[in-house]
Backbone:
C-alpha cells in the first residue's frame, strides 16, 4: 500500500464526512489539518472517519491509534502526518476461513 493510495482514500473519507454533515468540502492538500480547516470535523466524528478509512483500505487501524491527532488531544495532525501514521500502524486483516462441511 502506497502513501498515495492512503492519501486518496483519506481525502475521499473526509469528503464523505463533510457531505453527510451538510458541510462544504474544500480541496485539501497534505499540509492541511482537517480538524482546523473542515467545518464540524471534530472528535465526535473522528472515530467514524477512522473506521471508514480502515474499511476502504481493507485494513485494521488499532483502536488506540488516533489518526487525526495526538492521544492527549493537544496536537492535531496534517493529512500527510495522518497518512504516515496509518502506514506505520495499520494491520492486515486476518484471512477469512470457511468451516468445512
Residues:
Amino acid at each position: 500500500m502506497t502513501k498515495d493510495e492512503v492519501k486518496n482514500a483519506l481525502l475521499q473519507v473526509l469528503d464523505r464526512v463533510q457531505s453527510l454533515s451538510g458541510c462544504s468540502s474544500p480541496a485539501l492538500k497534505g499540509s492541511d489539518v482537517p480538524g482546523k480547516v473542515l467545518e464540524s470535523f471534530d472528535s465526535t466524528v473522528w472515530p467514524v472517519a477512522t473506521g471508514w478509512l480502515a474499511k476502504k483500505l481493507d485494513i485494521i487501524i488499532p483502536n488506540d491509534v488516533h489518526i487525526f491527532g495526538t492521544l492527549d488531544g493537544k496536537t492535531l495532525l496534517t493529512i500527510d502526518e495522518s497518512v504516515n501514521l496509518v502506514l506505520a500502524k495499520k494491520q492486515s486483516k486476518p484471512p477469512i476461513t470457511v468451516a468445512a462441511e
Remarks:
- The two ends are 35 Å apart (CA to CA).
- The chain has four helices and two strands.
